[in-house]
Amino acid sequence: MYYIATGPDDNPLYGGWTEVDAPTKDAAEALYRLVHPKASRLHVYETVQDLRAHQPYDMQGNHCCLKQRITLTVQTGRELYL
User: Fold this and answer.
1) Could you read off the pLDDT tens digit of each residue along the chain, which spans 82 residues?
2) Is 80 part of a structural domain of the chain?
3) What is the pTM of this model?
């Protein structure tokens, strides 16, 4: 799981964050950009502890929160011949 915030450099969690379920950081960024193609600066955290330790409050002193969860599910199967 990766945690992505798009706020400014001095307050990346402003506006909340998105959880992205992906196997790697690069895959998480790519998946995020599929949903949000106009996102410019991404702040990617590998653990929720990193995320919360960075800056747990926005500019108004409000606790930041999860805004979205993105999960990619790939199913594979075999054709069944009867």
Assistant:
1) 999 998 888 878 777 889 999 989 999 999 999 999 998 889 999 987 787 776 655 445 555 677 889 987 766 766 655 5
2) no
3) 0.74
Query: DSSP characters for the chain?
Result: -EEEE-S-TT-TTTT-EEEEE-SSHHHHHHHHHHH-TT----EEESSHHHHHHH--B-TTSPBP-EEEEEE-----------
Task: Find the domain containing 33 and state its range.
Answer: 2-71
Count of domains forming the chain: 1
Look at residue 82 and tell me if it is in a domain.
no
Instruction: Tell me, yes or no, whether 77 lies in a domain.
Output: no
- In angstroms, rounded to a whole number, what is the distance separating the alpha carbons of residues 12 and 37? 18
